[in-house]
Amino acid sequence: MSEDSGTAAKETTTERIPAALRREQILAAASRVFGERGYSGATTDQVAQAAGISQPYVVRMFGTKENLFLEVVARALDKLMTTFRETLAEHRPADDGDDADPLITRLGAAYVDLIDDRGILLSLMQAFITGHDPVIGAKAREGFLQIYRMLRDEAGFSPETIRDFLANGMLFNTLLAIRLPDIFEDDEAAEELMRCAFRGKLDVVLDASGATWTRS
Amino acid sequence: MSEDSGTAAKETTTERIPAALRREQILAAASRVFGERGYSGATTDQVAQAAGISQPYVVRMFGTKENLFLEVVARALDKLMTTFRETLAEHRPADDGDDADPLITRLGAAYVDLIDDRGILLSLMQAFITGHDPVIGAKAREGFLQIYRMLRDEAGFSPETIRDFLANGMLFNTLLAIRLPDIFEDDEAAEELMRCAFRGKLDVVLDASGATWTRS
DNA sequence: GTCTATAATCTGATAGAC
DNA sequence: GTCTATCAGATTATAGAC
């Protein structure tokens, strides 16, 4: 009868934890929910349930749904930029010659690895697709251009190289959004496209998609 | 005092027109609205206003909002497939040699030209991003794979060629969604990216975006 | 720090008149 | 063929208790 009946997946009695930590939990939940259903498609109640708290508390913590979404997107962008910069830094030492994979390939791999937090990639994509909104749209444009400038000014790529890189990223996001990894092996075209689009990273993608089948 | 005061942009007295024609008007309006705001973000009332009729009539005509969206997406996919097949057919005659642009370039150009009905490209993209939905998601997956198979089986491209083609398409859709064409000349990075991404088709894109500025 | 209750919309859909 | 009226349900946000 105490509050310690940890069998159910969802909390019966919510623990009292520091606001800062709760904030992170909400953001993590929101990232998943917004990533799946988009800004308008997601409800603050869905976020609340995913975080195991009440709906009003979500709103109380972030003021408005829009604020929450903007924070999620800002975090996602930040994570992406940081990941790229780390990859850039790691690459510098062995810069000359063709010792290993070219930088662009490493960045692509780093991008794909972000899939283990689907929310990051999908929330960003959802922000892009909400470009019509005055507030969200402005942030989306800003964010996209920020990535472009980083690839150009910090990584030193040509516009053409960046274009191809971004294009592959958008394709990757789209395949994730339509959940192609979920119908792997169901459809020969789906499998062929995935093998080609995800290259050596197919296993990473499939793992992250919570697939429940064994290797044949 | 009669119903013929054609100065306002929106109808005051709705004309009585054939259902089939009205249906087309609604679909055209819905394509624009859904393309901008997405499935959840758009309301049947917004569609109704864009079509110049009442909200209940929109619902009456298509049963449900979901049905209307599915019809919009099916039409968009159809238009895309048809456009590609026409491009394929036109190419056949002068197939051998490098007489003009390679087929893939022509297909790319045909895709960009679809921008004069933004709704087509954006509605499709909105469908892709709504992949989590059981019904819409299924159609989105199907549609995407249909395009892939066409490019492979009818156009004869390799998976790698198709991947790059689709990737550029997704980038194009994304740039459209974040309305990059609207801030052309406002931001040097935006302009550089657009020139690179849209190649020779920049003017077509800018024209279609209802830009209101004169060439410098 | 977190909840319950609830106000205030908004929105999809139905009924029925003209 | 099209509208007005309207209901039912969903959803963001606020108030206030604990």
TrEMBL record, chains A, B:
Residues 43-62 bind DNA. Coiled coil: none annotated. Keywords: DNA-binding. Residues 20-80 form the HTH tetR-type domain. Gene3D superfamilies: Tetracycline Repressor, domain 2. GO terms for molecular function: DNA-binding transcription factor activity; transcription cis-regulatory region binding. It comes from the Bacteria. InterPro entries: Homeodomain-like_sf, HTH-type_TetR-like_transc_reg, HTH_TetR. This is TetR/AcrR family transcriptional regulator. It comes from Cryobacterium zhongshanensis.
